[in-house]
């Protein structure tokens, strides 16, 4: 009986160790060599729009906990006109996030738009598409960031370890004397 309980504890420990934990990965629209963030300075003047895409690899996750789109903008501070921007569409749909005022020349992060429902299922490599609009004035688009919190796909070694633990537990239960 003690062996059986020990085998069950071993199996539970293996299952717990193999349980996927939450991970975070960040993708940028503008990248340099090796996928490293590389900001750009693209001036948008009202009523200009810019279509932006962020490539992501959904083969890494089993399920998404959350996904957030953030846009990095900077003002020019050379004119007195107030500068406003808006995310006009995400995947062709208006997200109704409202205009933001760009104030100052430093790069600032704007919006934190939930886009988890816009990302495709695992093993798709279609980019997330959105449109940035200059509502008034002019400002610089610098970059866009997609932050994905996810449960990773279990590794084959972890699955094999769990399977062997269950096999040992099954054999231990089967060999007990009558």
Describe this entry's structure for a reader:
The protein is an alpha+beta fold. 20% of the residues lie in helices and 41% in strands. The chain is built from two helices and nine strands, in the order H-E-E-E-E-E-E-E-E-E-H. The strands form two sheets. Strands 1, 2, 4, 7 and 9 form a five-stranded antiparallel β-sheet that branches. The termini are close together. The mean pLDDT is 82.
Give the topology, please.
Blueprint: H1 2-18, E1 23-28, E2 42-45, E3 49-54, E4 61-75, E5 83-90, E6 100-102, E7 108-114, E8 128-136, E9 138-152, H2 156-174
Antiparallel strand pairs: 1-9, 2-9, 3-8, 4-7, 4-9, 5-6, 5-8
Helix pairs in contact: 1-2
Would you kindly provide a brief summary of this structure?
The protein has 178 residues and is an alpha+beta fold. It has helices at 2-18, 156-174, and strands at residues 23-28, 42-45, 49-54, 61-75, 83-90, 100-102, 108-114, 128-136, 138-152.
| Secondary-structure element series | HEEEEEEEEEH
Q: What's the total helix number? A: 2
User: What would you call the structural class?
Assistant: alpha+beta
Shape estimate: elongated
Task: Please supply descriptive tags for the structure shown above.
elongated; single chain; 20% helix; 9 strands; five-stranded antiparallel beta sheet; alpha+beta; 178 residues
């Amino acid at each position: 009986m003690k062996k059986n309980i020990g085998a069950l504890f071993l199996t539970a420990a293996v299952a717990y160790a193999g349980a996927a934990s939450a991970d975070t990965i960040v993708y940028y629209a503008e990248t340099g060599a090796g996928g490293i963030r590389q900001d750009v300075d693209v001036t948008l003047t009202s009523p200009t729009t810019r279509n932006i895409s962020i490539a992501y690899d959904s083969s890494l996750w089993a399920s998404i906990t959350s996904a957030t789109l953030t846009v990095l903008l900077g003002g020019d501070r050379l004119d007195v006109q107030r500068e406003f921007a808006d995310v006009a569409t995400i995947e062709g749909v208006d997200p109704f996030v409202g205009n933001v005022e760009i104030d100052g020349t430093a790069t600032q992060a704007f919006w934190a738009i939930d886009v988890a429902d816009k990302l495709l299922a695992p093993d798709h490599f279609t980019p997330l598409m959105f449109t940035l609009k200059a509502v008034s004035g002019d400002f610089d688009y610098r970059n866009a960031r997609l932050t994905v919190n996810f449960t990773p796909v279990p590794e084959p070694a972890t699955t094999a370890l769990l399977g062997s633990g269950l096999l040992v537990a099954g054999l231990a239960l089967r060999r007990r004397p009558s």
